Amino acid sequence: MDRRRFIQLAAATGAAALPLPGFIRSGFAAERVDIGAVYSSTGPFASAAVLANRGSKLAVDTYGKAGGAALNYVLLDDQGDPGKAVRKVQEAIEQQKIRHFIGATISSMALAISKEVHKAGGVYTNQGGADEITGPDCNRATFRWPVATYGAIEQTVRPVIELNPGAKRWYTITGQYVFGEALLRNTKAVLAEKGLEHAGNSYHSLAEKEFSGYITAAIAQKPDVLCILNFGNQTADVIRQAVSFGAKRNMKIVVPWSTGLDQFQALGSNVIEGVYFGLQYWHEVDTPGNRRLRQLVKEKLNETPTYLVAVGYAIVQMLLEGMNKANSTDPARIIAAMEGMTYEGITGDEMIRAGDHQVIKDYYLAIGKARSAMKDGENFADIISSGKSFLPLDKTGCKMA
Predict the structure, then answer these.
(1) Its GO biological process terms (predicted)?
(2) Looking at the whole model, is its pTM more than 0.85?
């Protein structure tokens, strides 16, 4: 008797409630679902992507199953190139039939991947910061964990202005890519609202490593605040070079988007002391989800979670929580389950806003501490404020299809 005929007869006779024979049960064994992780294993962003990949792989290994399926982690190396990222995703969709994706090292990659996954009827969670991801370029397939650049600037630039009422002139150094432009646009909006002067801006490319010329240009304008609007190793390079030029003696330094602990460890307390940093995540925040993450990372990786490890974990967690809520691996069902979903994330209770697929969570402002004030070898900074800042849905530009 074939399987379909057996089930039809079982339904007709009430036998479906009885234990199924072994050959029938095997047909219902948990399927395997591939999770396509898009990270720059090589290229200019590899140092950051390796850490995020570590966090994502840890999440998949820890959950093991979701939506009734065994999880299989598939790493796709985009080599730091948006074009290659798209080709890798296209190949994974066409050749491996992957429909569940996470990752992307920079916002331009996330935006490009988002379109491909949406076209294929998949689901995609990412850590891009550009407002467009949950704004004009939003789509049903795509979900974003980090606070967007709008919220990052609101929770850093605005409180720094309040803390330093005498600081009237701001100078910015900006990465000339989608993410940097978004940070700059939001910074200029806050400065204009507050009646403060934007004394100038220096753009740099993704490939730039030497920033002395930009810093010299900034110092020549005699600003009260130097605001650094870029990402990853370039942020650390600008901070290091600015401090070596004596910038801290004459101005405040603000870094609205920092990777936190790993950057602080690389720079050292002498460099970061007195510098303001915006943080998506800080390992000392006391929430149940973060306590679990710290314990997990300690046990499995023998380290303290940095932002990059944490965000890699977080974007997988939200996807797998959606799969479990849907009790399915079908992308359409997962998307429906994730819209409006609240779950216990690493920053506390995190909620996915249905209208634009943005996770609503806290963003933190920290200030670097002197070595003598550190409680332990990783207590580089104190959180001095936190909060949630998100554009109202009707202001995001998101028209969810």
Answers:
(1) amino acid transport
(2) yes
Average pLDDT, the chain: 91
Say how many residues make up the chain. 401
End-to-end CA distance of the chain: 45
- Looking up tokens 């646009």 gives 185
**Pairwise CA distance, residues 340 & 352, whole Å:** 5
Q: What range defines the domain where residue 317 resides?
A: 33-146+285-360
Given a contact cutoff of 8 angstroms between Cβ atoms, the answer to whether 169 and 199 are in contact is yes
Q: Which of 236, 237, 245, 253 is nearest to 172 (CA)?
A: 253
Chain Cα centroid distance, residue 350:
14
* Beta-carbon-side half-sphere exposure of residue 288 (alpha carbons within 13 Å): 5
Residue 216 pairs with which residues in a beta bridge? none
Residue 346 in tokens: 């690493």
Closest CA to 206 of 112, 88, 80, 111: 80
Q: At what angle do helices 82-95 and 107-119 cross, to 10 degrees?
A: 30
- Whether 55 and 111 map to the same domain: the answer is yes
C-alpha–C-alpha distance, residues 182 and 152, integer Å: 11
On whether both 203 and 259 belong to a single domain, the answer is yes
Q: How far apart are CA 276 and CA 262, in angstroms?
A: 16
pLDDT (tens digit, 9 = 90+) per residue, 66-91?
Answer: 999 999 999 999 888 889 999 999 99
Residues 213, 230, single domain; the answer is yes
